[in-house]
Amino acid sequence: MAQTPQAKYRKDYQSPSHTITDVDLTFELQETQTTVTAISNVTQLGDQTSLKLDGESLTLKTVSVNGETWANYTETEGGLEIHALPNQFELTIVTELNPAENTALEGLYLSDGAFCTQCEAEGFRRITYFLDRPDVLAKYTTTVIADQEKFPSLLSNGNRIDQGTLKGNKHWVKWQDPHPKPSYLFALVAGDFDILRDNYKTKSGRDVQLEIYVDKGNLDRANHAMVSLINAMKWDEERFDLEYDLDIYMIVAVDFFNMGAMENKGLNVFNSKFVLANEKTATDTDYLGIEAVIGHEYFHNWTGNRVTCRDWFQLSLKEGLTVFRDQEFSSDLGSRAVNRINNVRIIRGPQFAEDASPMSHPIRPEKVIEMNNFYTLTVYEKGSEVIRMIHTLLGEEKFQKGIKLYFERHDGTAATCEDFVSAMEDASGISLKHFRLWYSQSGTPTVEVSSDFDESHSTYTLKVKQHTAPTADQAEKQALHIPFAVELYNSDGTTIDLVSNGQSVSNVLSLTESEQVFTFEGVNEKPVPSLFLEFSAPVKLEYDYDDQELSFLMVHANNEFSRWDAGQMLLAKHIKSNIERVQQNQECIVPESILAAFKGVLANKELDPALVAEMMTLPSFNEVSGWYDLIDVDAIDNVLTVFKASLANELKSELEQVYQRLEQGEYSLEHSAIGQRALRNCCLAYLARTESGQQLVEQQYQSAHNMTDTMAAMQAANSAQLSCRSGLMEDYSQKWKHDGLVMDKWFQLQGSNPDAGALKAIKETMNHEAFSMKNPNRVRSLIGAFMNTNPVNFHAKSGEGYQFAGEILRELNESNPQVASRLLDPLLKLKKYDSHRQALIRNELVTLKNMNNLAKDLYEKVTKALEE
Ligand code: B3K
Ligand code: ZN
């Protein structure tokens, strides 16, 4: 590596030396040589007369100040330093870029021939030299010039204010964004698209044009995105009293994109995965994902764009809050319980794992080398849990008052997490003094609960201890303020009102100390407690339930989430004990209590099928891994496989009945229809492991008239390793080989193929005509699936899985470090494997570390993993 990358610390924040109030940008677009002219109005804020601008991979052409050529500047490693400047001036900088060579997909690049940009977090500095930091807010005017035939659509932020043609078949469009914004929200797109148009009238009467730009020929896949956008606009008005603030809202779908989507002001750029869908090409999960991401980016218009972040350490200010908002949107539109279950699965699985890894960090990180490495599950998902806890502590009404005050105070500015918490506190009158620790403390708390029923005094006591284990980034931990929502059940299924010291108390208890005791009066029989209702805090619960209590809660808990959670605890208990058995060379046995409980769930026609599907779904390999300090790959895999097969064979007739009963005609996106398909396909996944499985799976594949059912059949064949698998895979590939996005589902199945020879097949798959190492979606589908969802092959003792990952990472280090860095994550957890595997992984990490052009994205993670 040329120079050791330097870390930045949150505590070192300094306000900018200058600010830029207005920017006028002109882009002369050409694939290999684009010229950018940036004219900025700059004002000095302190006493520094030198201006340090950020810049990367740029060719500088000219610098002028107030119209005069300015020679007094130095080009530095990370930018440009201009000296001896007046207090206030107009700065003109001309740079040149090569979008065609930009495979990192940051800054201005080409996606399938269309120009597009990605500037968050620090990509604008690859477009021009600038104060590329979120606390410099400017008004942008952007002129885009390009060939008229190749690029009929020329887009940027704000409103289209002028346009014209030029000689040489060129045309131009001028855009003006009236809202001051940080550079990371800048966007430009130029291409030849089909456009889906609609409009929306806001509640105060503003007419908004809605436009979705998709690749030619994809118009029939854009409807759901449009419906989702309109739903999001309406929902934000109703639930948060927030309206859209421009006359046009554009979404562009591109195939080459590093993440899901980007909330650029008025011009969202989306990974086509989160826009394009019709019933033939997309599954129900895809549809729901589109709704969530369209909502998420739209909601950023207020939480992120109108109020942005002072510095990148505050990222959770916009991301945690916006994830909370998109989760609420999906829950209000669909099933709250199913949404909550899926969000909790992410926290308990990959987020807990991240918090236990060398990359552990608080939701507001303290130290960063490469900002792109901190768009994490911790900042996003745990960040959202922190907002949700505030919501739980305040209640909806006070929470909304807090939101209102937050916008009154900070609209149009760059704020901090502290600003948000203060607004919540001031508006509600509820102290969050202790609660703030969630922003600075990393790691997952464990809450250990024990109970005692005193019959003679009719009291019931919960003793609670909380403890957070040290993490890689932080040795000392303190007790947190944890909202602990509980319910106590009588044997007839009714709940007991909580009374303490003669007073009725809220069912949300506040844990604030490392040990606390709560005693409730008037309890006449030993109750069954339901703890951390709706997962009221992102913690690990330890309570010694017996099977009967859990089976009771699965049936009697008021809340659907609690029922599911009880089922998960019952499974966890027996998965753990069987892992121990297997480790002692004993047989894995699924106990009667589980079979009976799940039989009951399947037979219960009162339950929402979507919930039954969730209840029937075992924790994933990765979630189970998270329960252990040392992961026994084979034992976990073995136990999960036996559980699936035993449930399938023991519940065969119930599964078949449900499968037959839920057969559907027309495809509909009604939530009830989605739930029925989910349950039916869950049954299919089990039935695939029975004698009649093969026939059923083939039949479903042949008769399926939507992608959800097609994929369910293929998934079932893949994970149960049916002999029909290869035939189905071949058929699908023949049908879809021209369409990368649809092929991603196929690549995922190749990547997660549990067959012992899978790695060889995966390597061959890389030659498939639809595969490209340059496309992040393809890489994540095939190689990401291999590294994250194919434990037995990836962790093969031979080390070939790790070697393959190493080769891929070395290649991506050069072409696309952001994608490489994401892909690297499973290797960071080397400490969780036996010494043999650890040594093999370490080898790959050391090879990476020794590369002389290692990107800082990878450098940051690899060094942390090797230091630990
Ligand atoms: N804000 C973007 C993510 C940018 C990631 C930069 N590496 C999308 C989102 O969270 O809405
Ligand atoms: Zn976001």
Task: Provide a quick synopsis of the model.
This protein has 868 residues and is an alpha+beta fold.
In percent terms, what proportion of residues is strand?
A: 15-25%
Would you report the number of β strands? 33
What composes the largest sheet?
A: 8 strands, mixed
Q: Any idea what the shape is?
A: globular
* Main sheet: strand order: 6-5-9-3-2-12-15-14
| Contiguous helical run count | 26
Helix amount: 40-55%
Based on secondary structure, the structural category is: alpha+beta
- As a whole number of angstroms, the C-alpha radius of gyration is 28 Å
The low-confidence runs, each spanning 5 or more residues with pLDDT under 50, are: none
Mean pLDDT: 98
Distinct small molecules bound, one entry per kind: (3S)-3,7-diaminoheptanoic acid, zinc ion
Secondary structure: elements and pairs:
Layout: E1 8-9, E2 18-28, E3 34-44, E4 51-54, E5 59-65, E6 68-69, E7 73-76, E8 79-82, E9 88-97, E10 107-111, E11 114-118, E12 138-147, E13 153-156, E14 159-166, E15 170-181, E16 188-191, E17 193-201, E18 207-215, H1 223-240, E19 248-254, E20 261-262, E21 267-271, H2 284-299, E22 308-309, H3 315-333, H4 336-355, E23 367-368, H5 377-410, E24 414-415, H6 417-428, H7 437-440, E25 445-454, E26 459-468, E27 482-489, E28 499-500, E29 503-504, E30 508-511, E31 515-520, E32 528-531, E33 540-542, H8 547-556, H9 560-583, H10 592-603, H11 609-616, H12 621-625, H13 633-650, H14 652-661, H15 671-687, H16 693-703, H17 707-719, H18 725-736, H19 740-752, H20 758-765, H21 776-789, H22 791-794, H23 800-815, H24 817-828, H25 835-849, H26 856-867
Parallel strand pairs: 2-12, 18-19, 19-21, 22-24, 25-33
Antiparallel strand pairs: 1-23, 2-3, 3-9, 4-8, 5-6, 5-9, 7-8, 10-11, 11-16, 12-15, 13-16, 14-15, 17-18, 20-21, 25-26, 26-31, 27-30, 27-32, 28-29
The structure holds (3S)-3,7-diaminoheptanoic acid and zinc ion.
